């Protein structure tokens, strides 16, 4: 494999931390000397020190700070998991990678984490199912509606082309399971629902079901590892306007998931009974789940369909499916009770946008 340095942003986060762990796993064989993780706080940095990699306490909103970190540490590949909402983070990273490419003449790579909610009717996507081979960038550009996720995608695709940086966008769906990083272990929606249900002694759902795209955190982390491996092996992956990769392993029903949670919570005596009731109002749901009202229904009823008619991309082989997800609800409850550290960074970002 080519000897390139890799920086994972959001290294203390749920996804980023799990990507770091997957890159360091025995199956991946990535040298620790080539792996860097960016975190926000000194406490997070200390929690990752035991991994034996270089941890950078970095403000990704600071263009100069990001440029210095990329150039001084000779970063060739960035796996950006810190935010799909704030375009400034990816812009600063791509600009820094452009400077690195210009200084060395070597190819540089930016792997950006987006989310699939932007490809739902509820999220303003008018084109329906995203099919294998669709020119997603072209559709986003034509739509040009300012939706934060899609806006970020088009901005960074164009900037990367201008800077000569190879850019790939990973569409991340609903993620579940316990993370393997050293800091944040929990996903977003399921733990929020579990905490709200325990507080209210009742599991609630919205009055319309959703068929949401989903992936287990272990399968998602391995997908990032697969992409990085192919880059290191010199494989020319579709990138830029053609570089959209959706990490969707399967779909699932929110109502079925809610019933599974109700059964698990009831068996533990944490809710009054296993009956799932409808939220009396979006206002109540937003307050209980600690989400802005305009996002709360979208995050629980958006229907996203990704159709891979030719099978999973890049030879990816996810191990989790809907049946295994629904069978793991007690594991989700146990993990939430054990690892809850409060609201996730995504929830903070959404509230900041409000």
UniProtKB/TrEMBL annotation:
Residues 5-96 form the NmrA-like domain. SUPFAM superfamilies: NAD(P)-binding Rossmann-fold domains (SSF51735). The chain crosses the membrane at residues 6-24. Gene3D superfamilies: NAD(P)-binding Rossmann-like Domain. InterPro entries: NAD(P)-bd_dom_sf, NAD(P)-dependent_oxidoreduct, NmrA-like. GO terms for molecular function: aldehyde dehydrogenase (NAD+) activity. Keywords: Membrane, Transmembrane, Transmembrane helix. It comes from the Eukaryota. One of its GO terms (cellular component) is cytoplasm. Pfam families: NmrA. This is NmrA-like domain-containing protein. It comes from Xylaria hypoxylon.
């Amino acid at each position: 494999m080519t000897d390139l340095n890799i920086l994972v942003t959001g290294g203390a986060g749920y996804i980023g931390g799990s990507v770091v762990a997957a890159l360091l796993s025995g199956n991946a064989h990535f040298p620790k000397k080539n792996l860097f993780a960016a975190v926000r706080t000194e406490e997070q940095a200390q929690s990752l020190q035991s991994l034996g990699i270089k941890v950078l306490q970095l403000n990704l909103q600071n263009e100069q700070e990001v440029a210095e970190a990329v150039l001084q540490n000779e970063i060739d590949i960035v796996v950006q998991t810190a935010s799909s909402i704030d375009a400034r983070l990816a812009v600063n990273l791509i600009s820094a990678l452009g400077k690195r490419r210009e200084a060395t003449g070597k190819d540089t790579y930016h792997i950006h984490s987006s989310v699939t909610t932007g490809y739902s009717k509820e999220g303003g996507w008018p084109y329906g199912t995203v099919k294998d081979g669709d020119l997603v960038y072209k559709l986003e550009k034509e739509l040009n509606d300012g939706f934060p996720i899609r806006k970020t995608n088009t901005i960074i695709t164009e900037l990367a082309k201008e800077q000569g940086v190879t850019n790939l966008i990973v569409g991340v769906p609903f993620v579940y399971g316990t993370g393997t990083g050293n800091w944040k272990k929990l996903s977003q929606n399921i733990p929020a629902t579990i905490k709200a249900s325990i507080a209210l002694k009742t599991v609630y759902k919205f009055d319309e079901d959703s068929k949401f795209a989903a992936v287990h955190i272990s399968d998602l982390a391995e997908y990032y590892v697969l992409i990085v491996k192919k880059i290191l092996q010199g494989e020319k992956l579709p990138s830029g306007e053609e570089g959209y990769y959706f990490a969707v392993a399967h779909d699932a029903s929110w109502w079925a998931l809610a019933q599974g949670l109700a059964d698990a919570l009831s068996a533990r005596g944490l809710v009054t009974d296993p009956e799932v009731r409808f939220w009396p109002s979006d206002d109540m749901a937003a307050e209980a789940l600690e989400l802005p009202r305009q996002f709360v229904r979208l995050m629980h009823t958006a229907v996203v369909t990704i159709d891979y008619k030719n099978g999973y991309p890049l030879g990816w082989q996810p191990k989790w499916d809907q049946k295994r997800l629904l069978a793991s609800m007690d594991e989700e409850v146990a993990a939430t009770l054990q690892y809850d550290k409060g609201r996730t960074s995504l929830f903070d970002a959404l509230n900041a946008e409000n």
